[in-house]
């Protein structure tokens, strides 16, 4: 339920959003490889499965994946742009996502993106996309300086709760002051921190008291560093009134308000995650088809020595089926 796509956006189409920075896809002559570009700058090397549904299905077959939910590569979000232009962009990207899924509609499903900088337009596009066939919406974990507890974003989450739209929160635009300049450190250090920041912000701010409990909310990348540091947050809430001033209940009592994916890459980390969240609240995620994603999708769960068959079945499929209201896995 955590994979990405990037459609065949040309430079000309991207320029309708922003000629200097909007993302587009430069495909090599061999048709197998390409580069996501932002204006004139290279952003990330990619390969055919990112934009070609036939290649994606071929790899899913090889990996034993029955159904895959895909969503925008976060560079596509467009939160920095004029809201009207970003709305038109999001709608096109969402339509492209459905076109990709139409290749194998029983096996490929999509999550939408929205122009989060304008709450009315974001809510409108989330509902339109959901009604047109998307199984939920993916949002970035913050909007500039606004974390998920900001009233603007709480309003969007409340809309999704009321409309029955599942939400996947994905880290993006990672915090860095220039020290994390090599070795992909923003992705290795700041990305998990961004995810935990989102989760703890919702808890300690009291935002969960204002958001309907019906909201289906999931955090990518195993919730980042949340499971490992939950004890620290709980201890701080118990010992310091400044931590609990806006949070009426212990942090551990909010674990039933959200889900996480399983993309943690280490059996000990997965065991801690399942022990923390419960086997009903961990969904199979991979970050496919990027190099930092799980290369053998599902292997970490399927081969885990400390998970029983019931837990494995839930994480490998049943939890996602329930969360995203997916059809039966039979093809």
From TrEMBL:
Please tell me whether the keyword Lyase is annotated for this protein: yes
| EC number assigned by the record | 4.1.1.45
Q: Which UniProt keywords apply?
A: Decarboxylase, Lyase, Metal-binding, Zinc
Q: Where is the Amidohydrolase-related domain?
A: 2-326
Which GO terms fall under biological process for this protein? secondary metabolic process
Q: What class of enzyme is it?
A: lyase
Cellular component annotations (GO), alphabetically ordered:
cytosol
Instruction: Cite the GO molecular-function annotations of the record.
Output: aminocarboxymuconate-semialdehyde decarboxylase activity; hydrolase activity; metal ion binding
Q: Which InterPro entries match?
A: ACMSD, Amidohydro-rel, Metal_Hydrolase
Q: What does the record give as its pathway?
A: Secondary metabolite metabolism; quinolate metabolism
Family the UniProt entry places it in: Belongs to the metallo-dependent hydrolases superfamily. ACMSD family.
| Complex formation | Monomer.
For this entry, the protein name equals 2-amino-3-carboxymuconate-6-semialdehyde decarboxylase
Q: Which organism is it from?
A: Paraburkholderia saeva
């Amino acid at each position: 339920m955590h994979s990405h796509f990037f459609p065949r956006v040309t430079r000309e189409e991207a320029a309708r959003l922003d000629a200097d920075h909007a993302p587009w896809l430069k495909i090599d002559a061999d048709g197998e490889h390409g580069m996501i570009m932002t204006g004139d700058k290279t952003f990330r090397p990619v390969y055919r499965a990112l934009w070609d549904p036939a290649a994606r299905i071929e790899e899913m077959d090889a990996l034993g994946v029955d159904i895959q939910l895909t969503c925008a590569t976060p560079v596509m979000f467009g939160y920095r742009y004029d809201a009207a232009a970003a709305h038109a962009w999001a709608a096109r990207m969402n339509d492209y996502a459905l076109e990709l899924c139409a290749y194998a509609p029983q096996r490929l499903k999509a999550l939408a993106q929205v122009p989060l900088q304008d709450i009315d337009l974001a809510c409108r596009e989330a509902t339109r996309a959901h009604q047109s066939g998307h199984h939920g919406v993916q949002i970035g974990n913050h909007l500039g300086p606004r974390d998920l507890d900001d009233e603007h974003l709480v309003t969007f989450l409340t809309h999704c709760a009321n409309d029955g739209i599942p939400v996947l929160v994905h880290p993006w635009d990672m915090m860095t002051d220039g020290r994390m300049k090599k070795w992909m450190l923003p992705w290795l250090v700041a990305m998990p921190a961004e995810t935990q920041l989102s989760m703890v912000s919702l808890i300690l701010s009291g935002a969960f008291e204002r958001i309907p409990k019906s909201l289906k909310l999931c955090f990518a990348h195993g919730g980042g560093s949340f499971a490992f540091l939950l004890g620290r947050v709980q201890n701080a809430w118990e010992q310091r009134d400044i931590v609990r001033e806006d949070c009426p209940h212990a942090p551990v009592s909010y674990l039933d308000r959200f889900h996480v994916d399983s993309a943690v890459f280490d059996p000990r980390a997965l065991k801690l995650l399942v022990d923390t969240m419960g086997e009903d609240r961990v969904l199979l995620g991979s970050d496919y088809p990027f190099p930092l994603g799980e290369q053998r999708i599902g292997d970490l769960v399927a081969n885990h020595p400390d998970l029983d068959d019931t837990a494995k079945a839930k994480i490998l499929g049943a939890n996602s089926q329930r969360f995203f209201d997916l059809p039966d896995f039979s093809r």
